[in-house]
Design brief:
The complex is a heterodimer of chains A (about 325) and B (about 280). The longest helix of chain A has about 40 residues. With about 325 residues, chain A is mainly alpha-helical. Chain A has a domain of about 220 residues: MetI-like (MetI-like fold, Orthogonal Bundle), CATH 1.10.3720. Chain A has 14 helices and four strands. In chain A, the strands form two sheets. Chain A has a two-stranded antiparallel ribbon with strand order 1-2. Chain A has a two-stranded antiparallel ribbon with strand order 3-4. Chain B has eleven helices and no strands. In chain B, helix 6 crosses helix 8. The radius of gyration of chain B is 24 Å and the shape is globular. The relative contact order of chain B is 0.13. Classes of the chains: A mainly alpha (about 325), B mainly alpha (about 280). At the A-B interface, helix 2, helix 4, helix 5, helix 6 and helix 7 of A face helix 1, helix 3, helix 4, helix 5 and helix 6 of B.
Chain lengths: ~325, ~280
């Protein structure tokens, strides 16, 4: 019996079975093709982030650089303990960041539903354009589209004038810098990240369920709540993750639209690596931020699984 | 499907949506409006801001760096990401389970899910350590390109993977039967089939690069000021000026024009393709 195809020939030469050799060849090809890309990400992202997290457990020298011994001092500092006693500053910043992320997420979800179904009720030919018009602003640079809001909400800007007239904002001050400006900036930046997944689930919507609901005399909001909304939950949950996680740790928006009194965790972390270096403290803050991010991610992942995830092609 | 929605609800949806569309573009329009502010001690509109901008050599240097950064990083990440998506789709053992099988997915999703601030600071520290230990990788355009490649690779890989996953695996068997070896079938079968995804991945990489500020900010050096970093620095130093608005306007206009052009060109091509007999 003579071997006819390469794996069999190879098998005879190497004395291994064809299946074994083929599996070998396959995994060799996997490493040749996928290897470089994976190696790149591991080397330039996973290794650096492990280094960053590790720094959180070192002490800090006079220049804010990590030094021996290993300590949990930075975490005590994060919790607010220092030589001067306990301070609630960091806890407030953390709560403020969570609240900002939650508000921005809720605002963008509330805006997304009407927009998504507005697009869905337009002719098929114009839907892609209407969706593109939503996404387009997010393709401009972060700094440009964020500072653009200063033109509306800074001191002497049009929206500020309206706010002065209504008496919401004290004279001589702008809406920005302030908490409201941050919420607006975050919602503006991340609205497309809510609309796109929501639109994807709205496109797959089974409208016969809506008709069935109507046959059962459901109307208005009840009809939406029981027939449409459950079908959009997977899209909504993806959207919540895409908005809440980047909004929580955002750096540009609080930096440009917020002031010292509306400091968020992103700016606090960045300060430890730029203006007043204290790498271990900054790393400890980062770990706390990632813990909250991870907890949110896992919670929503479980929720999505329980409610039936969107069946897209996943790697 | 949409005929289920009664006219009254449709009117309500439109009444909420159109103002949001307007609101999305108002801040950008304000930037353009203020870019035509008059020169000091004058009134009316003028192109003073643009004149100041174009006489500033640092802006052109920053633009050049931004373009090198975007095209350089997108080229490398397209090559790495295409191979990565292809390899994972074709050569990953179908029955593999456990950590080893999920490791590639884990690696791919990390850059996507990691907050860009953490991403940027990790790179800052890593490059700093490598530089002080070996003298290599001094903060500058090089480190920025590396960081940009890192966050683009997963997006390119996912784009290519999604396209390949929708294909009939028998195609590859067929090319094998026609005596194409691995490299040949990659070059003459895979590449042509996934070309739209590769181009899409490349454009996505450029978009991500142009959009980014945070990661660029933490990986840049004193001599590698790109346009967003220049704008951020100028605003922090002396507030918003007409020339910054002029620069912002040009950046916004470029993105909008290119995106709309790409949209209408591909749509026309799709329409033409749908008219051809298949």
């Amino acid at each position: 019996m003579s071997a006819t195809n390469p794996p069999e020939i190879l098998a005879r030469v190497t004395g291994k079975t064809a299946v074994q050799t083929e599996a070998r060849a396959k995994s060799f090809r996997l490493w040749i093709t996928a290897g470089p890309g994976l190696f790149w990400v591991v080397l330039f992202l996973l290794v650096p982030s492990v280094v960053l997290l590790g720094i959180g457990f070192f002490a800090s020298n006079d220049y804010g650089q990590p030094t021996m011994p290993l300590t949990l001092g930075s975490f005590q500092q994060v919790a607010g303990y220092s030589l001067l006693g306990w301070d609630d500053g960091n806890i407030i910043i953390l709560i403020r960041s969570l609240a900002q992320a939650a508000t921005a997420t809720i605002v963008s979800a509330l805006l997304s539903y009407p927009i998504v179904f507005f697009i869905m009720t337009r002719p098929v030919s114009v839907r892609p354009l209407l969706l593109l018009l939503i996404i387009l602003p997010s393709w401009t640079n972060q700094v440009v589209r964020t500072y653009a809001w200063l033109e509306l909400m800074g001191p002497n800007a049009p929206l500020t004038a309206v706010a002065h007239w209504l008496g919401i904002v004290p004279p001589d001050l702008g809406i920005a810098p302030g908490s409201f400006a941050i919420t607006t900036g975050l919602a503006y930046n991340y609205l497309p990240y809510m609309i796109v997944p929501l639109y994807a689930s709205a496109e797959r919507l089974d409208w016969t369920l809506v008709e069935a609901g109507r046959d059962l005399y459901a109307k208005g909001f009840r009809l939406f709540w029981h027939t449409v909304f459950p079908q959009t939950v997977p899209g909504l949950l993806s959207g919540v993750i895409f908005v809440a996680i980047p909004a929580f740790g955002d750096y540009v928006v609080p930096q440009l639209l917020g002031g010292d009194r509306s400091l968020m965790i992103g700016s606090l972390i960045a300060n430890q690596f730029t203006e007043t270096p204290d790498w271990p403290y900054g790393a400890a803050l980062t770990i706390i931020m990632l813990v909250f991010t991870g907890a949110g991610l896992i919670a929503f992942r479980i929720l999505t699984r329980r409610l039936g995830g969107a069946g897209e092609a996943t790697i | 499907m949409s005929n289920v929605v009664p006219p009254r609800v449709r009117a309500g949806l439109a009444a909420v949506s159109w103002p949001v569309y307007i609101l999305l573009y108002t801040p950008l329009a304000m930037v353009a409006y203020y870019s035509f502010a008059p020169a000091p001690l004058q009134t009316g509109h003028s192109v003073h801001g643009y004149a100041v901008l174009f006489s500033d050599g640092t802006v052109f240097a920053a633009l050049q760096r931004s373009l090198i950064l975007a095209f350089g990083s997108a080229t490398v990440s397209t090559a790495l990401g295409t191979l990565l998506g292809y390899g994972l789709c074709r050569f990953r053992a179908a029955n593999a389970r456990g950590l080893a099988a999920n490791l590639p997915s884990l690696i791919i999703y990390t850059p996507i899910i990691m907050p860009s601030l953490v991403f940027g600071i990790s790179e800052l520290i890593f490059f700093n350590f490598v530089h002080s230990a070996t003298g290599l990788l001094a903060a500058g355009l090089g480190t920025m390109v590396i960081a940009h490649i890192t966050f683009q690779v997963p997006y390119v890989a996912l784009t290519v993977f999604a396209r390949l996953a929708g294909l009939d695996p028998n195609l590859f068997e067929a090319s094998h039967d026609l005596y194409a070896n691995g490299v040949k079938s990659f070059l003459f079968l895979t590449i042509p089939i996934v070309r739209p995804a590769i181009i899409g991945g490349f454009l996505l990489g450029i978009t991500l690069s142009i959009d980014d500020f945070t990661i660029s900010f933490f990986t840049s050096g004193p001599g590698s000021v790109t346009l967003p970093i220049y704008i951020y620095g100028a605003i922090a130093k002396k507030g918003i000026s007409p020339e910054i608005n002029a620069l912002g306007t040009l950046m916004i206009a470029t993105v909008i024009v290119l995106a709309l052009a790409h949209f209408f060109i591909t749509r026309q091509r799709d329409r033409r393709a749908s008219l051809l007999p298949s």
